[in-house]
Amino acid sequence: MDLRDYERAKFELAAILRDAAITVRETKRDIQDPFKDLFARLAEDRFNLLVVGRFSRGKTSLMNAMLDTDRLPTGIVPLTSVITTVSYGSTERALIEYEGWSPALAREVGLDALPDFVTQQHNPGNQQRVALARVELPLELLRRGFHLVDTPGLGSSIVENTRTTERFLPEADAFMLVTSYDSPFSEEELRVLQMTASSASRVFLVVNKQDIVSLEERNQVLCHVRDQARRVFGEPLPQIFSISAREAVEATKQHDFARFALSGISDLKEALTTFLLNEKQAEFLLRMCERAADALHDAGYFGDAVERLHALHRGLVHQRSNNLPAASPLEQVTRDDAPQFSSCSICAQIDREFYKFLCQYQYDISARRDLQTKFAENGGLCPYHIWQYESVASPRGTCVGFSTLLERLAARLREIATASPTDAYSTQVKGLRPTPDSCDFCRAHADLEGRAVAAMARSLMAVGNESANRFSGLCLDHLHLVLEAIPAAATASGLLIIEANILERVSEDMRRYALKFDGVRRFLSSKEELSADARALLLLAGHRNVNSLRRLV
Asked: What is the mean pLDDT of residues 63-74?
């Protein structure tokens, strides 16, 4: 099961519950939210990877390395007794939850201010009573519900740090215990290992700071780590990774991919994401299907949603039992990193340029007599553009600019009334209406659109296979115009694939928002999810000030 299959299965389960809820509410008026708890669990879908270890092991540096960032605070001074989670967000920010407060009331602060709340230096002994610090970063690895949880260091002089970490252990879906080559496996780390072994959760053992020892010393330490792990877990052993978080962070800054590969972080990321895809997500969905079946039965529902649920469950069991192959986890993350659509770029360009034209035109028509005469001879503006003109014009400008037009129309109506047969009145009056060819604004719009489409086609042809970096999605009307202007099949095909990825990405954001709405978890929505409805309509119809005109053509 890959990430996209998982999302689709989760959304199908939500759709099944949504359809069943309608029937249940219609037949049992006293039931308002029969599947509220299930929606909430689906909406909160998250994979908690708990990062534990003694203080100064480099846990936060490791998380920075895994996320290709340097935004999480690091330092020798032990962090205070505050759990810090790192999850996906549309923009970089930190949210501070206080003890006794609802998560929906979390205080937003800049990421640079995070040390003021989570470090011993600025919040000694957690005097501010911070319950949780939530960091949100716009990183694709986190987008599918992957939560990294940074815990206070074990074994520091702050005893509460160790207690806080141990209390959070039941919340973990998997553990990453970070030790280091300078002093592998402290007493506190071994105790945590024993606690995780009894939970049957997946454990990843990470030995950091491989850059400070020789190859011979590295092998000796790894043998010691394996022996200690064998005493706790027996066989098979948890996966053990030798890494250098410092080397990975430096390699990322210098864009040195070979150095990054030698740091060992790539292998760790691959293993974690494989676990997320092939084990944790499938188990989560199967358990959710079973809970949904119980909920449907308890609600007295026996409609077709039951068969849909059984079909979904059978498909998940088939995938798991046959271990169906999926793309490489890291390839999936890269493939899904589609450009973020906010608006059709051609619509946006036309809207900006047309607004400038509109402002200048409304001034000229009130100041130039020759333009007023020509404006009247052309029949004025089409109905759509009359109201666009009105949005920027003053009453005086309209009175000066349009009065000649009204006088000319009055004269023509008198001519029609006296010189035309009665059955021709309607046709003659219809002929007074401006057409796209005679409306100055329609012509200006067509000219701006043609130039914008041609410019984008030239730009895409120039960059060739790198078009993905220059193309962030178009409305369907402008997509087809750009494709008409591109002779190269490879470039055109590439654009279609990118547009398809964008459409799917927006659809996923829409489904996530609907699920969080139904689960009363809207406060967890990212900015992309909150704007998904508007972005979907822009993809389909373009900007209302630009594409509404097409009904006249």
From this structure: 79
